[in-house]
Amino acid sequence: MTPPTTHPSANPGYGKRSTPGQQPAAVGDFAHLPDREAGIALYLDRLPDGADISVKTLATILPYGQCALRTALQCLRRTGHLRIGREHVRGSGSARWVTRTWFSRTPRDDAWWAAFVSGDVPSLSAAPTPRQTRSRAYILLAALRHTAPALALSAIDCAALEPLAAEWFAREATERDMLHALTSGLPPTIHSPSAFTRARLTAKLPPEPIRVPKPALRIIECAKCGAPGRPETLASGECAICRGEPAPARARPGTPLPPQRVRARAAEARAAASRPPERTHV
């Protein structure tokens, strides 16, 4: 199935979301699935992020009814290709949560999805980004001849000083920061622009920024009933009740809960309090 160029997009912030670290597309990616599910998975895989992949929309495009599509998507959840949940929108200035439909070409087990929800998925597994021909640091050094002619550097000088300049950017300095450090208060005569620039890049290097990692704010929901739950309780994307398993025994009245249960219930209560009044699965 080839996605049409006019496949509908979801509302901003919703729709398909590709997971990180997937293997490159290859023939047989979905050969482990039944024919119908494999065709639907291939179609979803080729859609761009933000595409509307709700059952209602897919039913208007694919040759299957809504009931068949729900069954197929449940299969994709059981085989680790799909999860539905909610994610907090960072930088929005509000406690806004949006419904997400995460898709992975590479099948993932429940442990991987649990790590994804907590934000612990290694970024190194993602495909490498091609390196630019000339780095940001090299371009700034080469442009010094226009900003401060006394610091004109050769191509060999720029290449030798590039790692030092790149470290400034790694420490969150801007081009303006570096230019000010290199060109302010220049002496009347500079005999070696390369040695002078190296000395200033080294002596005025800013300190390393203090970075506090922020955990991802995500919640996985049961694929059938939509109840939120901890990833370890949603095997194959479904809660114990929907899987037909008996509900866990409740503690007797007056029995104190262990600390980890108290924290888990507090987290669930906060998530429920911030849940938007209207949910739209796309």
What can you see in these coordinates?
It is a single chain. This protein is an alpha+beta fold and 282 residues long. The chain starts with 15 loop residues before the first strand and ends in a 9-residue tail after the last helix. The protein folds into two domains: 160 residues, no CATH class; 68 residues, no CATH class. The longest helix is centred in the middle third of the chain and has 16 residues. 21% of the residues are buried. A hairpin with a 6-residue loop joins strand 4 and strand 5. Strands 1-3-2-4-5 form a five-stranded mixed β-sheet. About 4% of the residues have low confidence.
Strand order in space, largest sheet: 1-3-2-4-5
> What number of domains?
2
**Number of H- or I-type helical stretches:** 10
Largest sheet: 5 strands, mixed
> Total strand count, please?
5
Shape: elongated
Proportion of beta-strand residues: 5-15%
**Contiguous uncertain segments of 5+ residues:** 123-132
Helix and strand element order: EHHHEEHHHHHHEEH
Q: What's the helical proportion of residues? A: 25-40%
- Compute the separation of the termini in Å: 20 Å
How would you state the average pLDDT, rounded?
81
Q: What class, by secondary structure content?
A: alpha+beta
Radius of gyration, in angstroms, nearest whole number? 26 Å
